[in-house]
Amino acid sequence: MLGLWEVHNIEDFEPRHFAFGVNLEFLMTSKAWLEERGITVIGSQGKGNQKPIVQSWMPAASVYFLDCDGNKLEFISMLHENPDELEYASYLSVWNEEHQEK
Question: Which SUPFAM superfamilies does UniProt cross-reference here (predicted)?
Fold first, then answer.
């Protein structure tokens, strides 16, 4: 998947990284799985690293982490709901709450 978008703050922008498609069940447990292996889980898009992050325009849930050389990597799982028009990132728990109400 190729993604192109405008960024408002270049300091927080990582221009390229590898993303590995995973199922949502694994994504939900991937933070613990990575940390058990000594891999650093990081935040992205102004969100912390405690929960999976949703890019609502796709929509997809992600967990970001660093490899042993400091390269940014991502586990990503596509969500089956329709994308939101808003350009924001939220936590997966918030996304689920918002979309259960619809």
Answer: Glyoxalase/Bleomycin resistance protein/Dihydroxybiphenyl dioxygenase
* Structure token digits, residue 23: 């199922």
pTM of the model: 0.75
The residue ranges of every structural domain in the chain are 16-100
Would strands 18-21 and 72-78 be described as parallel, antiparallel, or unpaired? parallel
> Given a cut of 80, is residue 2 above it in pLDDT?
no
| pLDDT tens-place string over residues 28-64 | 999 999 999 999 999 888 788 889 998 888 889 999 9
91: nearest Cα among 32, 49, 58: 49
Pick the closest to residue 27 from 97, 81, 93, 75 (CA basis): 75
Q: What amino acid is encoded at 23 in this protein? A: N
CB 99 within 8 A of CB 81: yes
Q: Which CATH class is domain 16-100?
A: alpha beta
Calpha distance 59→77 (Å, rounded): 9
